[in-house]
Amino acid sequence: MSIRILIADDHSVVRQGLRMFLELDGDLEVIGEAENGAEAIRLAGELQPDVVLMDLLMPVMDGITAIGKLRQQYRDIEVLALTSVLEDASVVGAIRAGAIGYLLKDTQADELCRAIKAAAQGQVQLAPQAAARLMREVRTPEESPEPLTERETEVLRLLASGQANKEIARSLTIGEKTVKTHVSNILGKLGVQSRTQAALYAVRAGLVEAPPQG
Known about the structure:
Elements: E1 3-8, H1 12-22, E2 28-34, H2 37-47, E3 51-54, H3 63-73, E4 78-83, H4 88-97, E5 101-104, H5 109-120, H6 128-137, H7 150-160, H8 165-172, H9 176-190, H10 195-204
Parallel strand pairs: 1-2, 1-3, 3-4, 4-5
Helix pairs in contact: 2-3, 3-4, 4-6, 7-9, 7-10, 8-9
């Protein structure tokens, strides 16, 4: 089964370039293109991609707003921010909105393909410097979150250590669908939009010793 990708970028040349080299990888399939955030949300509902590559600076609706709406409406779709902007506000905004990763447009093609595959597996990948920045900026919920069950805590700990859904399922001897259900429950209880935020919570709560690293 190939990983279905929706590209959201307001520059047609960027979309065409991404489509060309992503489709050289037999595991990836570009199923649609959007030129703004609003169109990305509409197409995500119609096409049900596995991963959305989201530019941040777009007309009509910006990428960070679109990420937030996408994650609220379609919990199974992972979003990778793909941008030329590297500012604290953009990184923090994208992750807080629910992006599972943050990549720059000068990322090498093979690195981008790997990141898309990792995102589709629900794998949290944060560069150490990004993790440190986010640890300072992304606050955990103000009120105490609903307590996690013992199994949910185990899943969160493995998720935060960088394991993909398949690896978590293998570690705990449960089905991959069960892992997805646990992750969805964890996000709801913690009041966060993404696995990345849940991983940061796990670090702050002392469930894992070091920031998750890619």
